[in-house]
Amino acid sequence: MTNLWSTVTVGNLKxxxxxxxxxxxxxxxxxxxxxxxxxxxxxxxxxxxxxxxSEGIQISDDGQGxxxxxxxxxxxxxxxxxxxxxxxxx
Length: 90
What we know:
By secondary structure, the protein is of the alpha+beta class. The two termini are 24 Å apart.
């Protein structure tokens, strides 16, 4: 690596550069814990950066730390996360 814009391989991922984006979408889930359209739009707008690290999620209703945060413990939640991922075109 010679600079920030050099390509890099991390495991089986070939990244276009060393820049990464951390999650910044807290409290944007719907009241039922599914990611809403605003999350899909947010990650879709940023997908061309390269590596996006998605936010933390609760794995059960009891694990919810505060309101409007996403979960991944119901089938509907999984479908919404896949919709978010697939919208980016990546």
